[in-house]
Specification:
binds uridine-5'-diphosphate; binds magnesium ion; 7 strands; 13% strand; Spore Coat Polysaccharide Biosynthesis Protein SpsA, Chain A; 7-stranded mixed beta sheet; alpha/beta
Length: 323
């Protein structure tokens, strides 16, 4: 079994040599073949120089260097593209994750899990602007997506190759990979990992990340539940809104016919018209989204299902196997 370590980094020159040493030590006596994929996300310090030195001496090391800073998610996506291992492990370059946990992750993968995530049980970050928002976000994401994890934000995670090769990442979606991948049907597990405070360099994120995580969650939830049937969300809202408007209108009409209540000057009339309008809009958006869903899946040859294995039979014409 081959294992690819994917390490996204931005301006971590002081951490790189220490990290490399720790990684070598941590994987030294494991019986797997390893490759280290460092993705330099447009660093402006000496990070690339450090990596170049390391790469010259060690053939297991691959360095992918971005033209500019594209973000941690993009860096991970590049790492996944270059990874050739059967299992891919992501780890931060700032030494906050402990390379010694790699062995534990791999043992869990060996038990048959597709995704194994780290839980920074004793997290060494500030409480108010880091751990508290994170606790709330993790609860929310677990509840919304049904993939129950205590620590989505921990970069230290292990994935089977099939998982990362089937997940397309945009924006800052890397933390959601377990949730996104749950759409293809995965077995996942969480293990407690060591966490350390940052010694060199500084964190690249602030409190504003929390809001972006909430917005991303909205996207993930929508794609997970409705990407192949958007009309069920929009159409549902449309029917409720339109139906309500129609009923209110009908009521007012009846009142005018049978009780002589004039309807032209009633605020309720505006509400009825508004609701019917919104209803029509929602249903139209739903229909457009249905067309988009077809374009999305068919133009990329993206399957609407993922198969674990097939026993017997021949490959279908133009069929998908999820790979
Ligand atoms: N990182 C990156 N690109 C960015 C921001 C961060 O590659 O645009 C890397 C960073 O170098 C580190 C990891 O992502 O290896 C996690 O970042 P950081 O430690 O700043 O996040 P925190 O631990 O504070 O959540
Ligand atoms: Mg960090």
């Amino acid at each position: 079994m081959k294992v690819s370590l994917v390490i996204p980094l931005l301006n971590e020159e002081q951490n790189i040599p220490v990290l490399y040493d720790e990684l070598c030590q941590a994987v030294g006596n494991l019986e797997y073949e390893f490759e280290f994929i460092f993705v330099d996300d447009g660093s402006k310090d000496g990070s690339l120089a450090r990596l170049t030195e390391i790469q010259k001496k060690d053939t297991r090391v691959v360095v992918v260097s971005f033209r500019r800073n594209f973000g941690q998610t993009a860096a991970m996506a590049a790492g996944f593209d270059y990874a050739t291992g059967d299992v891919i492990i992501t780890i931060d370059a700032d030494l906050q994750n402990d390379p010694r946990d790699i062995a534990k992750l791999l043992a869990k993968v060996r038990e048959g899990y597709d995704v194994v995530t780290g839980w920074r049980f004793d997290r060494k970050d500030a409480f108010i602007n880091r751990r508290l928002p994170s606790i709330i976000a993790n609860r929310l994401i677990s509840f919304t997506t049904g993939v129950k994890l205590h620590d989505y934000g921990c970069t230290l995670k292990a994935f089977r190759k099939e998982v990362v090769k089937n997940v397309r990442l945009y924006g800052e979606m890397h933390r959601f990979i377990p949730a996104i991948a749950s759409g293809m049907g995965i077995e996942y597990a969480e293990i407690v990992v060591n966490h350390r405070s940052r010694r060199f360099g500084k964190s690249k994120y602030g409190i504003s990340r929390t809001l972006r995580v909430i917005l991303d969650l909205l996207t993930v939830k929508f794609l997970l539940s409705f990407s192949t049937r958007p009309i069920h969300v929009f159409g549902f809202l449309g029917l409720i809104s339109g139906g309500l408007g129609f009923l209110i209108g009908l009521l007012m009409l009846a009142q005018r016919q049978f009780f002589n209540v004039p309807m032209g000057d009633r605020p309720l009339l505006f509400l009825a018209v508004l609701l019917i309008f919104i209803g029509v809009q929602f249903i139209s958006i739903g229909l457009l989204a249905e067309m988009q869903a077809r374009i999305y899946h068919e133009s990329q040859n993206k399957p609407v299902y993922y198969i674990r294995k097939v026993l017997g039979g021949a490959a279908p014409d133009g069929g998908h196997n999820g790979g």
